[in-house]
Write a structure and sequence with these properties.
Length: 603
């Protein structure tokens, strides 16, 4: 028997069919059970009458996988116009544990942070599913348009590149066989190289940006729609392609994503095919903002987020469209390869496309004459020698050319009216998360590094502390207390242990005058422990015994504090070096480090 999908059920009315899928929900109404099964095409409803089946299903949680043979019948009551009755059910994968995320509800009743913490399961939610189905269709539509209409060739550029010659702090470094390499911020230079090969090229490329700020529109990793073309008569032909691209994507979504758009209950942005996206020079745009709001940014070199919003409002009110091109930006504000305007070399043939309040694209014409490109590089204080390979294409013939880079997640966010760009990335990375997982601990290696990190943390959390410098402290706690000039009981001993079974390292912290009770520790961590070998500590963490600070999480260690540390108001400890200590409130210490608290010291 072949499997029938939810979406095809209606055409199998009065037939015996096979359904396979996940339990989405199961509820009782009187004596009847209503089972909703999810498959890749959607949901189907199954009516359960048998007592035994009802009992079995009641014990299962969403996510259980069923195989079910039953009869499809038309039903006016069923939300789907069809339901399955008299099923024979095989439980393929029973799930008894309730999922942490209530993903089967239309809207997950949790905040975005929680949803991202449990991303892998949250993605099963129908609204979230719909977002990424639409995103996949956006990429498909882009490829179709580029290939079939524009006649561009897809290219695949490297994502690991030589250490940046473009400068900028936004590059991620990677250790490349002992050398430093960068993760690509864009494929700009490569797409220009490819114009010299195919004239018209496009890509859907990953980009990586070490943007330290936490905003609703920046990710550390994303995808970019890239396009570049050669041989135009007028650089506005690039804007024509950009406009055609957005309209083609919208058209494709309207035709192919009706179900998803319905689930999301969002209309796409306002963008009638016949309305041209307005093209407003930068200086005029600032005038418009000034006239409409009284806010004078006419001397600025960039658009503020408020100005971007206002210009989109203007486009909607005056032109009936949620998109607006801002052209002719000041050259100084644009990248080195930007083409200076012939009539005014302070300006450039560049544009941004704003959509529903946010920049989604930057693009423009590029310098294509060798000497001009060299001048562009120099004008940004960079060295043309670092661009040798890139520059060679201009030595050997480049046509007038230009293109754009449009953020996939930005476009998803603005087209669907999402509030945060993280909702438009399957596994978002930002300063606090890598691939949606919270960054749990750093491994800070070495004495000075860990000291700096501790001090940075304390400042960041606005905790008061004293940073003491003194002669080298010996291993004995009594001597150390004397050198620091504080009571022995106020010293905190940070010990690194090793689990005898797992070989995992733990950190336990106790008051300086006490000893660690290994029996209690074993109970607490669930295995017998011993002291880690000092040579291993040195090799693994770059620290020496006696210099280890009670900041285990910075070393990626599960960390425990003996509760007797709180008996004294102050706590002192070596902060990575034998010659420097930190003196702070013991309560603050336990708060900042976020270790577990237990009772594992003895006299
Ligand atoms: P912004 O000014 O918004 O930070 P940008 O001007 O630095 O962006 P560009 O270098 O012009 O960005 O990149 C082209 C497009 O790539 C942007 O218009 C945007 O859609 C997208 N993009 C750039 N940086 C990010 C990011 N950190 N997260 C998500 N999308 C981005
Ligand atoms: Mn930009």
């Amino acid at each position: 028997m072949t499997r029938v999908l939810a979406k095809d059920l209606l055409s199998h009315v009065n037939q015996t069919i096979l359904l396979r899928g996940w339990i989405h929900s199961f509820r009782l109404l009187g004596k009847l059970g209503f089972l909703i099964i999810r498959d890749r095409s959607g949901l189907s409803q199954v009516v359960i009458q048998e007592k035994e089946q009802i009992k079995n299903l009641s014990e299962l949680q969403p996510g259980s996988i069923l195989r079910l043979v039953g009869k499809a019948v038309a039903s006016k009551e069923a939300a789907f116009g069809v339901e399955v009755i008299e099923p024979k059910i095989t439980i393929e994968v029973p799930i008894r544990e309730a999922p942490l995320v209530e993903y089967t509800k239309p809207e997950i009743p949790s905040d975005l942070e929680f949803i991202l913490d449990h991303r892998s399961i949250a993605l099963r939610n129908r609204k979230i599913q719909a977002v990424f189905k639409i995103q996949a269709e956006m990429v498909h539509a882009f490829r179709l348009y580029m290939h079939d209409v524009v006649g561009a060739v897809e290219y695949f550029s490297p994502n690991i590149t030589g250490a940046s010659s473009e400068g900028g702090a936004e590059f991620f470094n990677v250790d490349y066989f002992g050398y430093t390499a960068n993760l690509a911020q864009s494929s700009q230079l490569y797409k220009q190289i490819m114009v010299g090969v195919y004239e018209r090229v496009f890509a859907v490329s990953p980009f990586f940006r070490a943007e330290p700020s936490h905003t609703p529109r920046h990710l550390a990793e994303g995808k970019q729609f890239e396009f570049e073309m050669g041989f135009f008569e007028n650089w506005h032909e690039v804007l024509d392609v950009q406009e055609g691209t957005v309209k083609a994507i919208l058209d494709h979504l309207r035709k192919n994503c009706t179900q998803e758009l319905e689930i999301l209950d969002t209309k796409l942005i306002l963008c009638p095919q016949e309305v041209a996206i307005p093209r407003v020079p930068f200086q005029e745009a600032l005038e418009i903002v000034y006239k409409r709001t009284g806010t004078d940014e006419r001397k600025e070199f960039d658009l503020s987020p408020a100005a971007e919003k206002e210009l989109c409002k203007y486009a909607r009110e005056e032109h009936g469209i949620d998109l607006i091109f801002i052209t002719d930006w000041k050259l100084e504000k644009r990248p080195f390869y930007s083409y200076p305007k012939e009539k005014n070399s302070n300006l450039s043939n560049t544009f941004d496309l704003l959509c529903a309040g946010t920049e989604i694209t930057s693009g423009g014409q590029r310098r294509h004459i060798y000497s001009s490109m060299v001048e562009g590089i120099r004008s940004k204080g960079m060295d043309p020698e670092n661009f040798e390979d890139f520059l060679s294409i201009f030595k050997y013939g480049m046509p007038p050319h230009g293109g754009f880079g449009m953020g996939l997640e930005r476009l998803t966010m603005t087209l669907l009216g999402l509030k945060n760009i993280r909702e438009a990335s399957l596994f978002p990375s930002d300063p606090k998360r890598i691939a949606s997982q919270r960054i749990k601990a750093k491994i800070v290696f070495g004495k000075e590094n860990i000291r700096n990190e501790i001090i940075r943390l304390l400042h960041q959390q606005k905790v008061e502390f004293e940073h003491l410098k003194h002669e080298e402290t010996p291993v004995s706690s009594e001597e150390t207390a004397k050198i620091r000039g504080i009571a022995l009981e106020e010293g905190v001993k940070a010990l690194i242990l090793k689990g005898k079974h797992t070989k995992k390292n733990y950190q336990v912290n106790i008051p300086g005058h006490l000893k660690v009770d290994m029996k209690q520790v074993a109970q607490m961590v669930g295995e017998k422990c011993e002291f880690e070998d000092p040579a291993v500590i040195e090799e693994r963490f770059g620290l020496q015994i006696g210099g280890v600070p009670p900041f285990g999480p910075l070393l990626n260690l599960e960390t425990f504090f003996d509760e007797r540390i709180l008996e004294r108001e102050k706590a002192a400890f070596n902060c990575g070096l034998h010659t420097e200590s930190i003196l702070m409130n013991s309560e603050d210490l336990l708060k900042v480090v976020e270790g577990k608290i237990g009772n594992f010291s003895k006299e």
